[in-house]
């Protein structure tokens, strides 16, 4: 399977990608735990059907020390016992924040309260920005049909400026 357009070699897309990577760097450097960042990115990507991002965030999570057992259970996190209460709150936010079109209420007050009970202002800001960023990345990759499987951890590290 080939992508509909190579966004890495297109001048406009590459310039946008560089700024996108810079925005991601702000989140990666935030106090939001890396594990939470990867779990949230993985769950949103699963919901959106973005194979490229599922591949990326699974591999990045493993490279950061995440267990395969936990990654295997992200899609079924409600029934799994391997996630902390803070991670469960973040995963609930990821689902509700990703499925905005599916739910007329958006993010529920209950989910928001759970998130606020586990994360400080900076972590919440990073979590909200991460959800916006991963959902945008999912849409870009799904639209152009970027294939999954070729990602290597760290391959986009040089994109920022």
Describe the overall structure.
The chain has about 160 residues and is mainly alpha-helical. The chain has one domain: AhpD-like, CATH 1.20.1290.10. About 60% of the residues lie in helices and about 0% in strands. The chain contains seven helices and no strands. The chain has helices at about 10-30, 35-50, 50-65, 70, 85-100, 110-120, 120-145. The longest helix has 24 residues, at about 120-145. The two termini are about 30 Å apart. Pfam families: CMD (PF02627). This is Carboxymuconolactone decarboxylase family protein. InterPro entries: AhpD-like, AhpD_core, CMD-like.
What is the fold's blueprint, element by element?
Layout: H1 11-28, H2 34-48, H3 51-63, H4 68-72, H5 85-98, H6 109-118, H7 121-144
Helix pairs in contact: 1-7, 2-3, 2-5, 2-7, 5-6, 5-7
InterPro entries: AhpD-like (IPR029032), AhpD_core (IPR004675), CMD-like (IPR003779)
Organism: Pseudonocardia yuanmonensis
Protein name: Carboxymuconolactone decarboxylase family protein
């Amino acid at each position: 399977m080939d992508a509909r357009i190579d966004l890495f070699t297109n001048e406009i897309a590459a310039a946008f990608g560089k700024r996108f990577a810079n925005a991601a760097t702000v989140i990666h450097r935030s106090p939001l735990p890396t594990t939470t960042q990867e779990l949230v990115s993985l769950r949103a990507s699963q919901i959106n059907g973005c194979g490229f991002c599922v591949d990326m965030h699974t591999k990045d999570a493993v490279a950061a020390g995440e267990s395969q057992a936990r990654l295997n259970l992200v899609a079924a996190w409600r029934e799994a016992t391997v996630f902390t209460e803070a991670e469960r709150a973040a995963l609930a936010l990821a689902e509700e924040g990703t499925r905005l079109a599916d739910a007329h209420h958006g993010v529920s007050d209950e989910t928001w309260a759970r998130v606020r009970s586990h994360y400080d202002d900076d972590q919440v800001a990073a979590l909200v920005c991460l959800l916006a960023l991963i959902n945008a990345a999912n849409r870009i990759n799904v639209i152009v049909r970027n294939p999954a499987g070729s990602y290597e951890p760290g391959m986009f590290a040089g994109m920022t400026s």
